[in-house]
Amino acid sequence: MPCADYWDIDEILAEEQDVVIKTFHDVAGGGFLYPCTGAAKPRDLKEGAKVVVPYWLAQKLVRRNAVELDLPVIFDEATQETLQTDPAVCRLGEKSRYYFEVGLKLAYLTKNFKLQEILVNAYIQRYHDLMTLSSGMGEANRSSIRKAVPSPSNAKSQFLSSLTALEEDMHRGAREAEDQYQRWTGSFSCWQLEPSHIAEVPAFKRARAGA
User: Fold this and answer.
1) Which Pfam families match (predicted)?
2) Longest dimension (CA), the chain
3) What is the DSSP string of the chain?
4) Which of 36, 82, 102, 168 has the fewest Cβ atoms nearer than 10 Å?
């Protein structure tokens, strides 16, 4: 996983993820966090109140021991179990475009080391699957001169439609590298290596060939 960058627009967008917090005590002036109901909002956020806020705000409050943070539903136990058994089947892109970035931030903030380990292992496994798939597509492209390219399986199509923003960038980079390699190899006029006419064939080989 890439290191966090304060100026990275993707990091900023990832921290817009909504999370649920529960206050430990009254928060002065925090009444604006209550959802809009049409009625006048109280000035302060009351003790024990549960409200939805973006991660960047929840992070500040958690570090001040003012609130308790609940993991979003996209990181529930069922999803964690699936990530452990077969991460490729998880449609993470539909859950969040920045699933791994958000998950690791939440795991670090809440000291949830189990979630951190699951996310790292799932990311590595999905990375291997993605690179294998990209390599397989390259092999299919190279063989397209000799035979028709087989259509991708339904499982592969589903996997590609489940990618997060980071995984899409990696997949796009792998395909671009493959295209550049194809253009480079296509610049050669000769593909078949032939024996040099300068090097003389040893005598014992000529004799064996004559026999």
Assistant:
1) PSF3_N
2) 105
3) -PPP-TT-HHHHHHTT-EEEEEESS-BTTGGGGSPP-SSPPPSSBPTT-EEEEEHHHHHHHHHTT-EEEEPPGGGSHHHHHHHHH-GGG--HHHH-TTHHHHHHHHHHHHT-HHHHHHHHHHHHHHHHHHHHHHHHHHHHHHGGGTSPPPPPPHHHHHHHTT--HHHHHHHHHHHHHHHHHHHHHTT-S--S----SSSPPPHHHHHHHH-
4) 36
As a whole number of angstroms, the distance between CA 1 and CA 14 comes to 14
Q: Are 67 and 21 in contact (CB under 8 A)?
A: yes
State the residue range of the domain holding 79: 73-144+155-185
- Same-domain check for residues 64 and 118: no
CA torsion sign for 196, 202, 208, 211 is positive
Number of domains in the chain: 2
pTM of the complete model: 0.72
- Cα separation, 24 vs 121, whole angstroms: 34
Digitized pLDDT (tens) for each residue of the chain, 211 residues in all: 545 677 788 888 999 999 999 999 988 888 888 887 767 788 888 999 999 999 999 999 999 999 999 999 999 999 999 999 999 889 999 999 999 999 999 999 999 999 999 999 999 999 998 888 776 554 444 443 333 333 445 667 778 888 999 999 888 888 888 888 888 877 766 556 666 666 666 665 555 555 5
